[in-house]
TrEMBL record, chain A:
It is a multi-pass membrane protein. The keyword Lipid metabolism does not apply. The chain crosses the membrane at residues 107-129, 141-164, 171-190, 226-251. One of its GO terms (cellular component) is ATP-binding cassette (ABC) transporter complex. It is found in: Cell membrane; Membrane. Keywords: Antibiotic resistance, Cell membrane, Membrane, Transmembrane, Transmembrane helix, Transport. This is Transport permease protein. One of its GO terms (biological process) is response to antibiotic. Residues 24-253 form the ABC transmembrane type-2 domain. Belongs to the ABC-2 integral membrane protein family. GO terms for molecular function: ABC-type transporter activity. PANTHER family: INNER MEMBRANE TRANSPORT PERMEASE YADH, INNER MEMBRANE TRANSPORT PERMEASE YADH-RELATED. The lineage of its organism: Bacteria, Bacillati, Actinomycetota, Actinomycetes, Pseudonocardiales. It comes from Halosaccharopolyspora lacisalsi.
From TrEMBL, chain B:
One of its GO terms (molecular function) is ATP hydrolysis activity. This is ABC-2 type transport system ATP-binding protein. Pfam families: ABC_tran. It comes from the Bacteria. It is found in: Cell membrane.
Amino acid sequence: MSSMRAFVAVLGRDVFVTGRELPSFLAQVLVQPVALLFIFGKVLGQLGYTQPGYAQILLPGMIALNAFLVSLQNTSFPLVLDFSYSREIEDRLLAPLPISWVAAEKMLFGALRGLFAALLMIPIGFAMLGDIDWKLSGLPFAVLCMVLGSFAGATVGLTVGAAVPPRRINIMFAVILAPLIFTGASQFPWAQLDQLRWFQVLCLFNPLTYVSEGMRGALLPSVPHMAPWVCVVALVAACGIFGVLGIKFFLRRALD
Amino acid sequence: MAPAVEVSDLVKRYPKSRSNAVDGLSFRVHRGEIFGLLGPNGAGKTTTVGILTTRVVLTDGDAKVGGVSVASDPVAARHKVAVVPQRVNLDRSLNARQNLLFHATYHGIARAQRHRLADELLDRMGLSDKAKARVDDLSGGQSQRLMIARALIHRPEVLFLDEPSTGLDPQARLFVHDRVNDLRSEGVTVVLTTHDMDEAEKLSDRVGVVDHGKLLTLDTPEALIRSLPGSGTIDVTVRPNGVDSDRLLDLLSSVAGVERVERIGTDRGGGEPEPRLRLYVAEEPSALLGPVAATLHEHDVAVSDLSLGSPTLEDVFIEITGRELR
């Protein structure tokens, strides 16, 4: 009982701090995807370098990207700092709740931030690209993929954040984030990659692929896509595997 | 009632380490006591405190705080302990007062109560005008005091203070010492780790000296000092009046109770040079003042200064842990 109360209090602290830093949070989660959406969806389209339907394909992918990547970054980045120079997290590690719950709180909160960032992309996308034609009955499944994608991102974030030593944080961007951004089927439909088989196979290792494909399949059923059940199974599996791994690494960092 | 802290045959071996950081340590801290845990760097103090505050997993043996085993029920143990670490680990995203409030919330203190306690503690720690200050804007001493306030807000049974006055100016040090003494009168048990022997001697009811993960001795500072053989000293400055210095050393060494005589310098206050000598004595130095003065008088050596030096906890520490650098 007291552990539950402490869990809520720890989550409350994170929500409180985010509330106070809202402008910087928004900048952090929106600038990059909005810029991508603008260049690839709007600018290239108007210059005639992309086909007219490309913006349609891009928007669900960008929402998926935000869900997965914002969750990942918002879980991993603070953790690397917390465990190195600031040691801020110690206060929570000494609160009366199991250490694994502190890890779970970090994931839950990272996922919530990712989910929020993904939802924000919807009105922005509609306003920027105009003329978006979604199949509304696919919305519930798209939301399910978005939620699972946020949690998958947060679990990967916990794993990375607890495993990467602080002095390697620069490398984290180059060798982890960039490949995740570009192998996640968010800028292209995975099912049409059959001419580029090796890349298609590579994309299967990125959980983001299943978020993008699941959402695109639900909202734009006419675009070739991966089977929905495959997306759900893969995302649940990713959450399970990285969740366990992340908590294991977190415990290793938190306890000597 | 269970002791505040009970450590039995505690062992900690870090992975990849060839020796035990804590190696069969046992001691008890009584309730309401201020207990000093002393030892050279790397002696196992921090590991022991880490185990007692649930941050380090023990390898063998048992450690209890307030009767709760830290290994089998760490969550309950965290209710009972608080730590003031050496390094600032305040929440930088919150201001001073919020640091206290959120900490209290984690520990389930009701809203009205935590607001009252936060204001009370800020006042007591001399931080009332810093309530809204950002953590980054606090000085070292202010951060330290805020961490003490934070530790106290959930009313722990045992407070662990890790090197509480390292890096503080003398005023801040005194302030912290006064607050620790206040805790004693409130019945909070304090476990203090320090290298500062004056601090340990001044604050602790009992001290335990640890080295190589083992407890070397445990007693009140006074008893430890008393147990130290030959560390009382008498410093004497003389006008030899023709007696040469070797003869002088022989004379003083022959006084019963004097173990060793050392020449520590020469005063050249104008006239004849006056040698200064230090006598190491086995018993209470004041008892030897008479015999020393009498011996010198007999040989017509004039005494121009005579002072007593009593051993300190530092002498005890050096005696039992050795002089080597770690």
